[in-house]
Amino acid sequence: MSDRPNILHIFVDQQRWDTIAALGNPVIRTPNLDRLCREGVAFTSAYSPCPVCVPARASMVHGLEPHQTGYYENCCANNEIRVEELETFMHGLTAAGYRTHGVGKCHFMPDKDALRGFQTRLQQEGGNKLGCTKNDRGRARNDYTIWLESQGIGIDEDDAVGAGSEMYFIPQPCTLPAKYHPSQWVGDKSVEFLCEEARKNQPWYLFSSFLHPHPPFTPPYPWNHLYRAYDMPLPFVPQDSPTLWTYVNRVQNRYKGRSNGIDQNLFRCILAYYYACISFIDYQVGRLLETLEQTHQLDNTLVMFTGDHGDLMGDYDCVGKRSWLDASARVPMVVRQPGRFEGGRTCDTPVSLLDVAPTFLATGNGRINTHELPGVDLAEVATGTCGREMIFGQHAYTWPVNLAKSRYVPRYDDPLVEIAAVSSYMSLSNHWKYFYSAIDDREFLFDRQLDPRETRNRAGVPQHAETQQRMKAALIEHLRAGGETAGIEGDDWKRFPACRLEEDPDAAIFINQHEPDLSKFLPKEYLD
After folding, report:
1. Cα distance between residue 232 and residue 217, in whole Å
2. Distances in Å between the alpha carbon of 201 and those of 3, 5, 8, 98, 231?
3. Are β-strands 333-336 and 46-47 bridged in parallel, bridged antiparallel, or unpaired?
4. Please, what's the largest Cα pairwise distance for the chain?
5. Dist. CA 353–CA 330, nearest whole Å
6. How far apart are CA 409 and CA 208, in angstroms?
């Protein structure tokens, strides 16, 4: 066993920050995450630098902000940046002598098979809609589906993780038994790695990454019966919620089939299945901790649990991510390491996924050689020695290719201006959250102390004008220092034409799943 600490990095997709029992959720059951909270440090003001899957993950592994990776959405918007030439913290740990391995979803783009510093990876990415390699029947083919085939199961991975398309935001039990569920597979393969490495004298880094609780909401039987809809709280819909929407919220509601209103009973059922997915992941977390204990590695391992972003889940009458409201942008983050992160403490100082890379590199005495890191070691935050006042974020809605892009977002000859025209920018301190949506030409300001549930926008209130200007000026200066200036004009935001969504409720709906070639499966007479 190595003297240097191991690193177990448990990652989830689209899990909200407020879904851990020990941190105040009275409904959900998360005994193993509760244990991490009792034995480690819970960072209760952790945020995504961009509340979308690909850019959040790219920022985390490279330790860079979206404008530095070129990823603001689930595609690369700034093609002048070659992200494959930028090192990740996995490169740094590998160079420092660590055995680096990934299991599950990495969501690397454009090359889904890239290692990005890992020595080895086992993939379970989420199916055909992610552009996975296909077999001869058009089904996604990766390590998980190959394993399913070895078990005599030839199911499409899209169906294994839940039917998408019109069912994307409909709760549904997984079509496979629990032992074949993708979360169980990630847990199994992670346990196998931990047992193998226990016999070696080399420190390791394991990325144990779960696709769930990302929609569609598909816990396995009998976990889908763990929570009942009638026991779930209703979505949080404060008075005047539409005044807090951005254009992107409206588009997401539309293309996820929710612009005709939120069915509260349906959303209580969604929440029950969402919580079941989280509890099933918690069960896997328990298996990992138990394995570390049985192999005498737990006290020599930094364990971090966090995720890429949250989900509005009907709050504010909205669904999806891509929002700077806490339900979307705030993430769970708990770190356990004896002597460094311990004591069952909570820390409400703002932190970011950008801080993951410096934390792991400090743990493993590694370094990234291609760039400087804007984040900080979370140990400095936990001990109060950091001194950072604000964290920042940016999202640009460059993704709606499937929505006839030229109709729903503006087009410009300069790609950087095109990014700026659909960007939203955030600055956040202990007391205040400010964000600006260029696509709406609107500013938002929330008092995190007096209005922690974000019910009233203080932007434009004369008594808060000084605070609004201070948060705005800090954000603009931060962007200018990083060279992200296409959305700035002098000391103010550059104004772009506002976008409008068509009134037809079917306009902008799209299919969020690979569509199979039905000619390979159905008789010809049904397809004419």
Report:
1. 15
2. 8, 11, 16, 10, 49
3. unpaired
4. 71
5. 10
6. 36
CA Rg value for the chain: 22
Tell me if residue 176 falls in helix, strand or coil.
coil
Token readout for 416 is: 């950087």
* Other CB atoms within 10 A of residue 416 CB: 17
* Three-state SS annotation for 230-268: HHCCCCCCCCCHHHHCCHHHHHHHHHCCCCCCCCHHHHH
Nearest CA-CA partner of 384 in 423, 433, 351, 335:
351
Whether this prediction's pTM lies above 0.70 is answered by: yes
Element (H, E) at 43: strand 41-43
80 Rama sector, left if φ>0, alpha if ψ -120 to 50, beta otherwise? alpha
In DSSP notation, 181-226 reads SHHHHHHHHHHHHHHHHTTSSS-EEEEEE--TTSSS--PPTTGGGS
Question: 289-338: per-residue pLDDT in tens?
Answer: 999 999 999 999 999 999 999 999 999 999 999 999 999 999 999 999 99
- The string of pLDDT tens digits covering residues 386-423 is 989 999 999 999 865 434 444 567 778 888 998 999 99
Q: Own/partner pairs for 464-473, CB < 8 Å, 24+ apart?
A: 467/432, 468/434, 468/443, 471/390, 471/427, 471/429, 471/432, 471/434, 471/445, 472/427, 472/434, 472/436, 472/443
Q: How far apart are CA 450 and CA 455, in angstroms?
A: 10
DSSP codes joined into one string, 402-445 = GGTHHHHS---SSHHHHHHHTEEEEEE-SSEEEEEETTTTEEEE
CA of 378: how far to CAs of 49, 302, 337, 382, in Å? 15, 12, 12, 6
Judge whether 156 and 139 are in contact, CB under 8 Å.
Answer: yes
In sign, the C-alpha dihedral spanning 468, 474, 475, 476 is positive
Give dist(CA 516, CA 129) in Å, integer: 11
Rounded distance between C-alpha atoms, residue 23 and residue 332, angstroms: 10
- Segments making up each domain of the chain, as ranges: 19-519
**Long-range contacts, stretch 286-289, CB < 8 angstroms, 24+ apart:** 286/31, 286/32, 286/35, 287/187, 287/191, 288/8, 288/10, 288/187, 288/190, 288/191, 288/194, 288/208, 289/32, 289/35, 289/36
DSSP sequence for 297-352:
-GGGEEEEEEES----TTGGG--SS---SHHHHEE-EEEEBTTTB-SSEEE-S-EE
Backbone angles phi, psi at 392, to 5 degrees: -135, 160
Instruction: Give tens-digit pLDDT for 71-99.
Output: 999 887 776 778 889 999 999 999 999 99
Query: How much is the pLDDT for 512?
Result: 63
Other beta carbons within 10 angstroms of residue 520's beta carbon come to 9
Q: Does domain 19-519 fall into CATH 3.40.720.10?
A: yes
Tokens 């992107």 label which residue? 248
